[in-house]
Amino acid sequence: MEAAHGKSRLNKMTPLRPFFENVQAHYDLSNNFFRLFLDPTMTYSCAYFEREDMTLEQAQLAKIDLSLRKCDLRPGQRLLDVGCGWGSTIRRAADVFHGRAVGLTLSENQVREAAARSAGRRDIEIRLQGWEGFDEAVDRIVSIGALEHFRDERYDAFFERCRELLPNDGRMLIQSIVAGNEQTLATGERWVDREFVRYVRFIREVIFPGGQIPRRESVIESAQVNGFAVTQVESLRPHYARTLDHWCANLEAAWEQARALVPQRTCDDYMRYLTQSAHYFRTGHNDVLQFSMHVA
Fold first, then answer.
1. Could you list the pLDDT tens digit for every one of the 296 residues in the chain?
2. What's the pTM value of the predicted model, to 2 decimals?
């Protein structure tokens, strides 16, 4: 079933160029390396441990289902996944929610892997493309763990583009790491110390070049001024600490295999990134939120 609004209202070329180099510096490291510590779906974002006895894979599928339910994806509708990674959300959207899905990523390795996992399917499409150049009508939009790569100065352009792509009853779900605040900070923790400053610099310069963690207020304000009503904001912070614990344990268990794929320094850097991130989600310096919104 085609979107009721027909062709997209967008007919202009965007002057914005996607951050290909920054994204590829991280995600094009090695599919086989990421495979060592991610779950079999290769979902690289906060899981949702709906039950205590869930495996990491079950919790990742639960997070995807939660996200797709929040944006009210219905059979036959077209879903846009901005920052689709290795394609787990678009596959779930097609397999379980019976939608049609197009996923955008700036990673060449992710495109190849995601395309291989959905080869021959007409209800799934993978593109090496940024949202900046996407101009086709969709019914729903989901973006999980990609906003951190857009940078604050592009939020208005992003939400404006999403509003132009969606029909009047369109919905969107954004999941993003955000900076913690006085309400999330654990008792007895200092807001800023040398270790946290070093961690932030390390993440920005070594792990995610060009990345930027937004303030929750920036996301909400930009969405609202560009045509969206934000109806729910839910924190998954404890779930991300637990997700990172799983990734750390998996990487440690596959340490020798990892060293055969990437340099020792890279292995060390990733272990530091995973363990310190888990710590700072527990302390409340970091938070992760799901923003549910619909066209206003």
1. 333 343 344 445 547 888 889 889 899 999 999 999 999 999 999 999 999 999 999 999 999 999 999 999 999 999 999 999 999 999 999 999 999 999 999 999 999 999 999 999 999 999 999 999 999 999 999 999 999 999 899 999 999 999 999 999 999 999 999 999 989 999 988 888 899 999 999 999 999 999 999 999 999 999 999 999 999 999 999 999 999 999 999 999 999 999 999 999 999 999 999 999 999 999 999 999 999 999 99
2. 0.92
Q: How far apart, in whole angstroms, are the C-alpha atoms of residue 235 and residue 245?
A: 18
In the sheet with 286-295, reading across from the earlier edge strand, the strands are 124-128, 100-105, 78-82, 140-144, 171-179, 286-295, 228-235
Query: Which CATH number fits the domain that encloses residue 119?
Result: 3.40.50.150
DSSP 87: S
* Residue 84 near residue 23, CB atoms below 8 Å: no
Asked if the structure places residue 192 within a domain, the reply is no
Q: Is residue 204 part of a domain?
A: no
- Domain boundaries, position 84: 20-181+210-237+285-295
